[in-house]
Fold:
Amino acid sequence: MSKFRIPFEKVNWITSSFLIGTFLIAVTVVPWYIINFEQSWFQWLMFAFMVPATAMSITLGYHRLFSHLSFKAKWPVKLFTLVFGACAFENSCLDWSSDHRKHHKHVDHDEDPYDISKGFFWAHMGWLMFKLRPDKTNDNVNDLIKDRLVMWQHKYVQWIALLVGLVGPAILAGAYNHFFTVLPVWQGALGGFLLAGVLRVVVVQHSTFFINSLCHTIGHRPYSTKHSARDSIIMAFATFGEGYHNYHHEFQHDYRNGVKPWQWDPTKWTIWTLSKLGLASNLRRVPDSKILLAEMGEARLRAEEKLAALNAAHPTMTERAHVMLNELCEDLAKNYAELEKLVTQRVEVSKQTLVGWQQETRDLMKFVRSIRLMPATA
Ligand SMILES: [Zn+2]
Ligand SMILES: [Zn+2]
Structure:
């Protein structure tokens, strides 16, 4: 008898039907509509607005603002992200934040709601489709319970999602075609519902789900290997900047996920722009010295591992790579100790020194990666 069995008695039927139903409509009815019916630019404009509006209400609002308190926002930002966040059909902000705070606290362990060690599908969406865990408690979001806007959204989240996220696009697209007589009203309304409603919901949901699945599976771990979260530019493009997940798990209260200036993080740029417009404040940033210390710590571990492997494979080897790696490891250990002392004492480190150490760390990692272990000869 096979060990694999779907626990049907634990299926969350409403959520499962919604997730599977919308996905099936998105891959069958939507292409059928696009191929067989003319569309107006207005329907696609709504799709183009609703995708970033709802996705970034999750990344900027639910995630960085409400779950991590990485900045403060004025009420219009809160209201917008709560209304359009509801339209992503990812539960209320209160429930989402509670789950997410548990994820950070217990990452890769049993109490992590979307624990990647239970498998890719579980972390992606399985955790929503089955009720395998005891009823959840919201005792880790007492700060949000005091927020009247958050509690208003928590109470009416399904209605907001339905009216603004699905019915709204249908009415608007129908009205546009009624007033401008571009397409039959029913055709416009159906297009609004399918494109800016259903297709958009599926795209945005899986963009968020990828953060819990792929961002814990593919990419590098430059800041910490103590958890499964990874940095990946590909995932950053797919998730509005949330793909630098290794950094995020290491420094969860930073409003930036893509901390380097060149990294793709539209959520970070939007928060920064809101702060310039007076709509956001108290943007939290981890000091550069602390970030570099984490990078140097990881580089040191990787270099020492490679050195130990070299020593084990070639105990008598005195060749150049071995000597160089040894010297570089010693230099890094010295720089690390110095930076650690400065960070502990909260002494400001000059930009020039940081850039120099950063470059040395990167060069060492490049060198470590370039060393290939050869099988020892008899
Ligand atoms: Zn994570
Ligand atoms: Zn987070």
Remarks:
- The pocket of zinc ion (ligand 2) is lined by residues 63, 67-68, 100, 104, 248, 252 (CB under 6 Å).
